[in-house]
What does this fold into?
Amino acid sequence: MNQKQTSQSAKAPATGVLSKISVLGYGAGDAANNLAFTTATMFLLVYYTDVAGISAAAAGTLLLVVRFFDAFADIFAGRMVDRTYHKKLGKFRPYIMFGSVPLLLLSVATFSIPQIGETGMLLWAYISYALLGLAYSFVNIPYGSLAGAMTQKSGERAKLASARTIGAVAVGSFLGIFIAPLMKGGENLQPLFTTLTVIFAVVGTGLYMFTVFSTKERVVREVANVSMKQSFETLKGNKPLLMLCISSFLFLTGQLALGTVQIYYFRDVLGSLSLYAVMSIINIFLTFGMAAMLPRMVRSFGKKNIYIGGAALMALGGLVVFLAPAGMVWLAFTGVMVTQMGLYLVNMLVWALEADTVEYGEWKTGIRTEGITYALFSFTRKTGQAVGGALAAFALAWGGYAAGAAEQTDHAILGIRAGAGLLPMVFAILALLVMLVYPLTDAKHKEIVAEIQARRAARLADALDRRDSDDNS
It folds into this structure.
């Protein structure tokens, strides 16, 4: 162990309670992330079909291709993060600091397709969205990895997971309450999207800077710059990470299908676009209530069991959404809210579960690699987003969705129902089945952390003994 590694090992492990400002600052980062991500998730398909005039089938192919590209960009970003270390800002915050402005400006470009002919517009859509995904990888991978470097306590990680969910939901609720009701067929929506994304670029930059200066990496890292071999060594044999990746891929497939088609469901199936705003308001109360209860729920039931319960709720809600008659709006809306409850429970917990797999890899190999671990996790989530978003668009195309039509055909309505209800139900059930055999419980994680700390203390004592022996010789 060299002198730099020894000095890092001598730091106190991050087992204490995080300050409120750190938790708040971390949550602000995901609010900033979602100014780009949720805006694209909720409105990009609507923008492509109803504003840019791209067909649903072409838009579905675009979402599939570009999001798969984004998934591989995550792996590249994860490797870059593992290779970097700044002695003042640490491993992750430099990327957030310097990558935020390009990310937010690319969001403006993605929603500002010029009228340059059908081929030119489609090319602009591919390039701008691909660059947006690449920029998002270089901000989101460090941001997501940062949680595991701030603390190793399950309860504190649950707070960070809740904070980032609150940040994301705050943005999603704003979009749902104030922007979604404006998505009326036949309207000129280009000025709205341009103005919205420009404002988000300014606000998002401030939120990212708050994250950078209010958070700190506190977990001991014995190897600051991780080699390619060390990165992939930690992934080999990490069964919990593999299973979490598979489950997340399946869950995100269902979630993105739901999120992509939800506006169409309220507008064209239920004929009540205003209910989207009502849902968004209820989501705020749901999120804050769940966030307040989550640390206690984790202590009582464990993260794995709550994840399984959330997936079951999403599946149940999806079934109701798919089958509820259009005239029974109250029943359909109840199904939507049940899916939202399940979705938020899983999304609050999944980040804490991912951070736990970092310790599992360190326990196996002795090397801590937050970057590549989060990147692999994000890679599978991005592929789920790609498949889910594409399936939703293909469901519209299969049904024969007609952009701007005052009324959709029965077959088009069936396609929308399939995207908003059937797909989320099927993929939530599959995600649940994988998590039933997930091996890394909270009790096992606690044992692993204790063993890592004991090994580290033994190595530090050995290094100090050798130094004393050298000084006396």
